[in-house]
Amino acid sequence: MPLLARIGLVLAAALAAATILVFVLLLGAGGAGAPQWDYIGRVLAFTFQQALLSTLLALLGAMPMTRALARRAVFPGRSLLLRLCALPLVMPTIVGIFGVVAVYGGNGYLAAAANALGAGWRPGIYGLTGILIAHVFFNLPLAIRLLLPAYAAIPAETWRLTAQLGMGGGDIFRVIEWPLLRQRLPSVALVVFMLCFSTFAVALTLGGGPRATTLEVAIYQALRFDFDLQLGAVLALIQAACCAAGAWAVWHLGRDMALGQTARLVAPRFDGQRRGARLADAAVILLGTLFVALPLLALVQKGLAGLPAAAAPASLMRAALVSLGLGLGGGLLATAIGYALATARQAARDAGHRQRALVLALIGRLGLFVSPMVIGTGIFLAASGQVDLYRFAALGVIGLSAVMALPFVLSVLEPALADSAARHDRLCRALGIHGWHRFRAVDWPTLRKPIATALALSSVLAMGDLGAIALFGHKDMVNLTLLLYHQLGAYRLDGAAATALILLVLALLFYWSIERWVGGRELH
Amino acid sequence: MSYIEISGLAFTYEDMEMRFDLAVEQGELLAIIGPSGAGKSTLLALIGGFEQALAGAIRIGGDDISALPPAARPVTTLFQDHNLFAHLGVAQNVGLGLHPGLRLSKADRDQVAWALGEVGLTGFEDRLPGQLSGGERQRVAIARCILRKRPVLMLDEAFAALGPALRREMLELVLAIKARENLTVLMVTHDPEDARFAADRTAFIADGHVVLSGPTADVLSSPDPAIRAYLGS
Known about the structure:
heterodimer, A: mainly alpha, MetI-like fold, 21 helices, 78% helix, globular, B: alpha/beta, six-stranded mixed beta sheet, ATP binding (chain B), Thiamine transport system ATP-binding protein (chain B), ATPase-coupled transmembrane transporter activity (chain B)
């Protein structure tokens, strides 16, 4: 077995052991009496309710939008729109939330429009409504990006066949598109559901009090404010069980969920040439674009207007540097661990150890099941008394955000490694190229793009992550995310707007420069 | 006046400018051969309506069909691959030739069964394409072509992925159907043996032009340097 695969095995074992240790520590620690089951029940019910509604709304919007985008393979701005759909994935969650508030909040565009029309109506965004809008804003583009490749996989001959057989729009939907969507929808729905189920930043900022509290927020409150470690651990176990059930279902529903490169151009189609179809598609695309673009526009406009009220340049600069440092640290750690884990998994698959490969894939996705709050608090507990937490807080944030970003790194690297193994393994073995030589001559040139994507993605995720910094942050370690959260909490909205804009621009620049510098030129 | 008349049919792909002139008689089988990238499949796509010509005319039976949508043209194309929908059963795939939305009456289903019998696949109605061999899949597609009742059948390297014996068998099937239904067949192939076996006449295409068309034996033994270079003799 290659050295890197061995390292991957050791890392996986360490991750699993640390997680178990954390739960043992927390459950053994003191609590505030017996768990209040009716409180837990209420939280659980609300978590399910909002996740279910969010998923439903996101998919109801994504389906017609995907269909319209697939039908219109060429129109000005199409590739820009697809890039726009990638944005909510790399955008720090709290920035997106600010954009949503800037459009739908009490002082947002919507309220201003209602005012201009003479209606004295103030939309209330805090509570279920706000959580739903924010979740749809983040997940509708994600669903489009997961559904669109299914269309791109339809061979060009199929579209020629539909034209030859004279199939109309309805026929094509019934005979081709619906069977395709029916295959793909359940797994996309579950991914969206799980993301909404374990939501933290959205529910923390937009949730209104005890009536709109999700599991992850309840865990945070139990650990950080009530110091009820047992309750935190119990809630986390419930969440892990729910997510494990969801993951098991995703696994059985479909495995083709790689977050790869942008979908290639869809083959030319012959249907939908009539006026009505063109208008309908144009309307759907316009509405969807507005929904995704408006919060961004509002963010830019309010951010620019708020610059005079921005926090002091010195503290902004400091927070920006902390953001970059923590982001790069978390991203590098996540990508390094991810590469070792993916290599170990590939080695296990090649050797025919299917169960070991499955376990490795699952351990890499711990961040999806186990509340990061719980892992973080566990680190806290284990380290307290032994190390100076104040000094090592940065390491805590980096480690925690790396675990959180790991699933996304793996969803990029695993398929790329499998593809590379399928293409090069035999030839490399025949020529006796292995180890470092193989990495330099074969793997790096072909895997450089996906590695760059994984690093860029995990770095901006770590940079924008609110959970880790909310847990470990202190007055001398404030990044832009935490600064923005404090400003939002204190209703200093102009200053918050400026911070949000700066954070967004920084995150995008960060993403693009990593992809560019590490990824290199386009391979042919 | 020939049954199919293609005159000045112009098309540009990447940097290649194509211009086709070709005449085909009713009831004949014309083989179209030539190097890859010469424009053979593009010619079929233009006739089928999958690409739009920049200029020129395609007349079939005297009518210019260049403005018609693919389904309204008197032609049907058999591709090399992906002729069937993988998630639909054999009977449904054939039935699409009768109704594009698969609303099939009892009489329609009887016709499907009959067409499957014609291609030697009686009893295969409920199988999925994935359970069939490559030759069987093309037979299913041919059954659909029969039901579409178009006077012109176009084969776009339809049997290129099959072995020699199987390919011969498929060509015999096509010849039998052609004779019974009085079809006109255009067959793009990369194997001169296919042309020698089945084609009344052959057209040689290079660089987006029909270099020569005539009786198969004449074309294959032509001293034209492009043809000699292609055949390697």
